[in-house]
Amino acid sequence: MARVFTKAENQAWSKTLPGKMCSACLAIINENNEVLMVKAGYKDHWTFPSGIVEKGESPKLAAIRETLEETGLIVPDEHVKPLAIIYTTGKDGDRDRFNVGFATQLKYASGNIVVPNAEIEKVMWVAFDKVAELSGGKRSYEEFQRTLLENNSDLYVEV
What is the mean predicted confidence (pLDDT) over 115-122? Predict the structure, then answer.
């Protein structure tokens, strides 16, 4: 029979494993079936409110935090549902990444949409079929667009 590792041994072993970058985003959908996208000043493309999941933070809480930081909207945890998990292999020097997408309806958000800091230049409501184009052809956003348009239930996609 194999020896059972202690908690400390398991933690030490897990720290030796290679990690993958993980980001989270929140697709806020209005009554016209449009989704809110933001344009950060340091990017040449649009995204949903999003960012890197910080240490000790779940992807869902990261998406909610980034939405508040980038739009001023407060979205309660219970109204945030899974959209898709997109695993993108790195290309052109980019790292492999998990992009965990969530969705909610605008009716569940409180506050007014504002650009609260210098990071975000613009916010805009976008038809589902424009998401991939505005993202600059990002493979993960092509999949998010497909999921929104098809009301698809594929929660995990590799691109």
Answer: 81
Burial of 69 (0-12, 13-18, 19+ CB in 10 A): middle
Q: What is the domain count for the chain? A: 1
Per-residue three-class SS string for 100-118:
EEEEEEHHHCECCCCCCCC
The whole-model pTM stands at 0.86
pLDDT (tens digit per residue) in 42-101: 888 999 999 999 989 999 999 999 999 999 999 999 999 999 999 988 877 778 889 999
- CATH of residue 94: 3.90.79.10
At CA 120, angle to CA 114 and CA 121, rounded to 5?
A: 90
Is residue 80 included in any domain, yes or no? yes
